Amino acid sequence: MIRELSAGAVVLRRMKNQWWVAVIEPGHEGEPEDRKNVVALPKGNIDPGEKPLETAIREVREETGLRVGSVTKLGDIKYVYQRKWSDSAKIFKVVSFFLMKHLSGHIGDIKPNMKHEVRRAYWLPLDEAAASLSYSGEKQMAKKAMEYVKAHPDGLEASRKSVG
User: Fold this and answer.
1) Is the Cβ–Cβ distance between 38 and 27 less than 8 Å?
2) Per residue in 40-88, pLDDT tens?
3) Is there a contact between 39 and 23 (Cβ–Cβ < 8 Å)?
4) Is 88 helix (H, G, I), strand (E, B) or coil?
5) Domain spans of the chain?
6) Taking a C-beta distance cutoff of 8 angstroms, is the pair 40, 130 a contact?
7) In terms of CATH, what superfamily is 2-151?
8) Chain centroid to CA 128
9) pLDDT band (50, 70, 90) for residue 4
10) DSSP string spanning 108-147?
């Protein structure tokens, strides 16, 4: 079985007295309707020589247009899927997720070369994320982010460790 390693992030921003999370709609205009209602966290494959945190920061920048600061690692999601394209191979995938805080940039400011991967990016209230995200593992990461925010109410305000 082929193994894939990816990394992504739960990116938070405090606005209007609540926490919001950056989410994406994967895909592009003209793609089949079945992916139009997918709500996901920014993530992608780890490039050779890259560390998971570096990948997560890069993917957030590419897929949302945001610069972020690293807060903590939330956890790993592990699952098996079968490719629907090319060889129909079974893939064992591990996605490492990090909690990050928005530092700068405007959500949806996506470069033209990334528009084939992301239809749009937007802010979603964190308290709605677990119910709104499409994938169960990502729902778990949103719940962990909510738990972290409740346990560390000032923990995100001081965080500015990494900038992507």
Assistant:
1) yes
2) 999 999 999 999 999 999 999 999 999 999 999 999 999 999 988 778 8
3) yes
4) coil
5) 2-151
6) no
7) Nucleoside Triphosphate Pyrophosphohydrolase (3.90.79.10)
8) 15
9) very high
10) T---GGGTTTEEEEEEEEHHHHHHH-SSHHHHHHHHHHHH
